[in-house]
Amino acid sequence: MTNDNRKLRFLSAADVRRALPMPEAITVMKAAFRELSENRAVVPLRTHVPMPEHRGDVLVMPAYSPGTARFGLKVITLFENNPALKLPFIQAMVMVFDTATGSPVAIMEGTSLTAIRSGAASGAATDFLACKDARKVAIFGAGIQARTQLEAVCAVRTIREASVFDHDRARAAAFAREATAAFGITVSVAPSSAAALDGAAVVCTATTSATPVFADHEVAPGTHINAIGSYKPHMREIPPETVVRALVVVDQHAAAWEEAGDLILPLHAGLIQADHVHAELGEIAAGSKPGRTHRDTVTFFKSVGIAIQDLAAASCVLANARTLGLGTEVPL
Ligand SMILES: NC(=O)c1ccc[n+]([C@@H]2O[C@H](COP(=O)([O-])OP(=O)(O)OC[C@H]3O[C@@H](n4cnc5c(N)ncnc54)[C@H](O)[C@@H]3O)[C@@H](O)[C@H]2O)c1
Hints:
This protein is an alpha/beta fold. It folds into 2 domains: 7-113 and 308-331, ornithine cyclodeaminase, domain 1 (2-Layer Sandwich), CATH 3.30.1780.10; 130-306, Rossmann fold, CATH 3.40.50.720. It has helices at residues 13-19, 22-37, 110-129, 144-156, 169-183, 193-197, 240-245, 253-259, 261-268, 281-286, 307-324; strands at residues 7-11, 47-51, 56-65, 70-79, 90-98, 104-109, 136-140, 161-165, 186-189, 202-205, 224-227, 246-250, 277-280, 298-302, 328-331. The strands form 2 sheets. The protein has an 8-stranded parallel β-sheet with strand order 9-8-7-10-11-14-12-13. A 7-stranded mixed β-sheet has the order 2-3-4-5-6-1-15. Strand 3 (56-65) and strand 4 (70-79) form a beta hairpin. Helix 3 (110-129) packs across helix 11 (307-324). The chain is globular, with a radius of gyration of 19 Å. The structure holds nicotinamide-adenine-dinucleotide (NAD).
């Protein structure tokens, strides 16, 4: 005699995209970062498994949210040879468990989920920190993340124009065409970093670069920057001079000081102290720290990516998938 009616729901990339619209993802990220900063979640630092002979890294990212009674685990792979093989640089799977019983409840495609939740984090940061009248966005990198970065900024500000800069001009051109059609704004390819930044009130850097992608003097007062690319201590996208003059907000203090070269390299060079980081995004979401207080301040959100984002996004996907009847349910 058994009482075991456990079921597992499998969700594809298309299911994840349908179940996690950007505006809802931004709302979910604000709540997730707040839960993180108020120490209501258990989120160990992620484990890196380097595979240098394959130019790859695997990141193992667990999180427990008592609020949603879920445990989640994302395994994400980042393989540098993949774009040349026409494969995504990032691939991932996310598992969700019920925490009353420890039972697994869902497995979902994580590449799409990662792109949406990373865009949504920048959307939340832009909503809290960018000038309200921002009209132009500069996007650095024309890869997978770039699309959801732009989508998220468009969800929180009335954006009319975007400019994309990528060393790969063909990729930038394809991105500009696709984004113009998708978001109903003018997206053009910038011939230089300075051209991309000209008139931009919001900047998103989503590159695989290990060195700054623009010069400090190209950044106008009042600009808000979301930098999501670098995730290792030796990698950075933002010039140290910009970091020094900016109001800096991170996704999580501990993770940023472990991984964010954008902050770690200026710290080691003696250009900033650890207290240069003004706040975690969750503290601004909670109202316990202020966001932008002066129009001319350059604000800088550095994201390395936190497992609570994946768990919060996956929990939302699962709830919406059940309502919409998405995915395939199988008995365990
Ligand atoms: N913070 C987060 O939560 C988070 C989440 C996902 C990915 N990421 C990071 O975002 C970055 C981009 O990921 P992706 O999946 O879009 O990769 P991708 O390979 O699809 O795109 C990266 C693009 O950056 C361009 N690029 C590299 N150096 C450049 C430079 N100096 N100037 C302009 N463009 C440059 C490349 O030509 C490429 O088109 C990666 O570093 C990844 O680790 C961060």
